[in-house]
Amino acid sequence: MKKSETTKTDKSERELRMRQTIKKAAFALMAEKGLDKVSMREIAEKVHVTKPVLYYYFKNKEDLCSSIIDDHEQAFCDQLLTVQQRAQGPEEVLYEGLKSHLDFFTKNPIHSKFVIQMISYTLDMDSSKMPARKQDRYLQGMLERILKEEEKEGKVPAGATTDIVRLVSGIATEIMFSAYLEQHVCRGCIKGSLYNREQIARLVKIILLGIKQYYKETK
């Protein structure tokens, strides 16, 4: 590799590391204080750089927020991709997807705090500028694709995919909110309501058995 190419590569790697350092610092601050309450000055001070350095990497705070949200949701989507590759059949797919969701929010408490702050932030935004929720879209898309195949094979009642996806999405949302309440609002206050793997397995069976029975009775 020529010296000029090596220098260019080194510069790219340094810039990538700096972008990640900035986003990590901003992520922690925004999870704690709120996306709209953290200034570029605070982020610069946290990273020990000047504000012009931040604006070299991100054109404004909205650009930085969008990049952080993308990274956060991509991490979750990567977990779901692993689920999609290894799970077999509707019961295993639903269980593994919800278990992955549970692990994502319980193993690192900052995730639930950041999502709550993100929801608060987006509620105050113009709906046309609201960032897409990749994790919701990916979870739903993954389930829809797999369940449609199961419908073709007769393992899931014809037309039941939408109902199953809506039920699972509701549980996924409650998992995130219960994790947030336990981790950041009142530890121990909702202990009996917290999700665990056994509870998820039971709910998945209830959903699939209930769906089959419902569609059987309404034929």
Automatic annotation (TrEMBL):
Residues 39-58 bind DNA. Transmembrane segments: none annotated. Pfam families: TetR_N. Residues 16-76 form the HTH tetR-type domain. The keyword DNA-binding applies. GO terms for molecular function: DNA binding. Keywords: DNA-binding. The keyword Aminoacyl-tRNA synthetase does not apply. InterPro entries: DNA-bd_HTH_TetR-type_CS, Homeodomain-like_sf, HTH-type_Tx_Regulator, HTH_TetR. PANTHER family: ACREF/ENVCD OPERON REPRESSOR-RELATED, ACREF_ENVCD OPERON REPRESSOR-RELATED. This is HTH tetR-type domain-containing protein. It comes from Candidatus Avelusimicrobium gallicola.
